[in-house]
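Justification of computing resources. Each target in the renewal requires a structure prediction run like the one illustrated here; the chain below, 232 residues long, is used simply to show the kind of job we budget for.
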Amino acid sequence: MRKILLTREMDDILKDTKLFQNRGFEVLALPLIKTQSLPFEVPQESFDYVVFQSQKAVRYFFEKASLHSNTKIVAVGKSTQKTLETLGYKAYTPHEESANGLVEFFKHIKPCKVLIPRAKEGREELLNFLRERGFDVIDLKIYQTVMVEYSKEEILQVLSQDPIVVLASPSAVKSLFANLQKNMLTCKITLRNVICIGETTKSAYQEHFGSTCFVPKRPSMEEVVNLALTLK
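Resulting structure tokens:
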């Protein structure tokens, strides 16, 4: 049975496990990150758009806040859009489900006020683009992502089984690299099949590991499964 290594938070791994098992994979778990809520207050002034770049951002934001029903919401991808819909909010999703897709969307919008609830260590491309175009950007850091550390034995126990490695965020990439580096395994471990869920994660993987990875057609776990089935 082909093995696949899932590296998101444990709650996400548990949610995804059945999806992979139903397609014939043996699932290995190595949560490389965990997220923690940060204290925040939503500005009282009105804003024209709210942008959610992850399902986590949706979760942590709506644990403490709400939005008017007529607020324009933009979600980075279909998964984030669906999470919003379960809470009763409609959101637009760009054709390209990535930070680049969000940039393309706002190229056609006149400068206005935009709220972006996001991770403390999130990437800056969208914020920089909007500010350069004259948008009033409210950068609201609502959660942080921290690395989970493992011993050399724990890392080898899973990677020695030659699984397909699934990385779902740049933070997971950084955590994997840091764990290998800490345990002096960067030159001893060869990752044969790595799937990065989107272009942003792919860029982080290439930056840290200097090698290529596979990217699904769309950034979803369903598409990751389909891609994994094609790998040998």
